[in-house]
Amino acid sequence: MLQIAICEDREADGEYLYGTIKTCLTDAGKEANIIRFQSGFDLLHHTANIGHFHIIFINASLSGLNGIETIKELREYDSGGLVIYLSNTERFAVSSYTVGAFYYLLRPVTAKGLGAILNRAVEVLEESDSQAFDVRTPKGIFRIPCRKVSFIESNAHKLTIHLLGGEEVSLYGKLDEMEEKLKNENRFIRIHKSILVNAQHIFHYQNGAVILDDRTELRISRNLALSAKERYLCYLANG
To answer: Looking at 60-100, which runs of residues are DSSP E strands?
Structure first.
């Protein structure tokens, strides 16, 4: 079921969003759990301790912690949710995309306009639903799109998921378990006992190492050289 958050500190606007979103989903035959928050702090507390939202509607001009600051903090442990900003001004439009906004809606928002953006967001989620995975970290549940993973590294029972742009997500676990979790994603290749790499981001494959798009160099272990090469060639052939 879709998990949708509305973060709006103005009661009337929050009620309008809730009712319009619910009607749009009903008309589309979709079910969703919609939760309203009146501050960025409440939204952050929920996502860190209770669960992830697939779509977040948030007022860019929230009092206290504004919408941009809220999502910037959220992105420290959750990069997967689609964020739709609402605002009376274009003031926050540019900065909204620095935190990965899906869309920036200027008020007044019509039911038709809101419905079109919501339907597009649902389509995007349905297209990528099988291409993301959840991990539980000390900071909360983190939903990670596979395409954003550069490589996963294991060190002393701790996993570090390296994301595009230099972000990292850390958790306790075994690489064998992570590899099993991602077994249906042929883009992830074990090249070392401690490294699982996303073939999608390999810039150059050479004897003994791979070079990633950001020019990170990762060593291929001798024991896995043959199987890693075969899987990489298979990935290139089949995508």
So the answer is: 82-87
CA distance 83 to 99: 9
Which residues touch 59 (CB under 8 Å, ≥6 apart)? Answer: 7, 8, 9, 10, 13, 67, 85, 86, 87
Express each pLDDT in 140-179 by its tens digit. 888 888 888 999 999 988 999 999 878 899 999 999 999 9
Give the span between the Cα atoms of 143 and 37, in whole angstroms: 21
Question: Which of 16, 18, 73, 9 shows the shortest CA–CA distance to 47?
Answer: 73
8 Å CB contact between 228 and 220:
yes
What are residue 192's DSSP bridge partners?
195
Report the C-alpha gap between 208 and 73 in whole angstroms.
39
User: Beta-strand (E) ranges in 43-90?
Assistant: 55-59, 82-87
Check if the beta carbon of residue 28 is closer than 8 Å to that of residue 54.
no
Tokens of 229: 């090469």
Please give the pLDDT value at position 143. 82
Contact 132, 80 (CB under 8 A): yes
Nearest Cα to Cα of residue 87 among 9, 32, 23: 9
Interhelix angle 40-49/67-74, rounded to 10 degrees, is: 10
